Amino acid sequence: MSRTSTDAMADPTTFLLELYIPKADCTAVTLGAMRLGFAAAKLSAEGTSVRIVRTIFVPEDETCFVLIEAATAEAVRDAATRASLPVERIVATTP
Predict the structure, then answer these.
(1) Do the Cβ atoms of 15 and 67 come closer than 8 Å?
(2) Which CATH number belongs to the domain containing residue 23 in this structure?
(3) pLDDT 10s digits, 77-91
(4) Buried (b) or exposed (e) across 40-49, using 16+ Cβ within 10 A?
(5) Exposed, middle or buried: residue 33 (CB in 10 Å: 0-12, 13-18, 19+)?
(6) Domain residues for 72?
(7) Could you give the number of structural domains in the chain?
(8) Which residues fall within 8 angstroms of residue 74, CB to CB, at 6 or more apart?
(9) d(CA 1, CA 87)
(10) Smallest Cα–Cα separation from 13: which of 94, 86, 80, 79?
């Protein structure tokens, strides 16, 4: 019997994922974004919808912001963990 996650059916919320990335390590942004995209696709295939909306790297602040649509902050954290990203914080945004 097939199970469908309720996460996949819930209205998505846009979350802001904040990461610390040294300004001299632009390659880390590219590789991290690729790993996060793969992790989001895998979670979505497993029934937990996670969609990367946009990634913004601010080298002067050594910070990377990623907008992600998901049902829960836990789904965002799971994607970041699977991508081996050092999460500083995850917060829901307002429309």
Answers:
(1) yes
(2) 3.30.70.3090
(3) 999 999 999 899 999
(4) beebbeeebb
(5) middle
(6) 6-92
(7) 1
(8) none
(9) 36
(10) 94
Secondary structure, 3-state, 13-42: EEEEEEEECCCCCHHHHHHHHHHHHHHHHH
Whether the Cβ atoms of residue 43 and residue 8 lie closer than 8 Å to each other = no
Q: What is the pLDDT of residues 4-55, one digit of tens each?
A: 444 444 578 999 999 998 888 888 889 999 999 999 999 999 999 999 999 9
Alpha-carbon separation of residue 63 from 25, 52, 56, 87, 89 (angstroms): 11, 17, 8, 11, 11
Has residue 21 been placed in a domain? yes
Residue type, 46: E
The pTM score is 0.85
pLDDT in tens, 65-75: 999 999 999 99
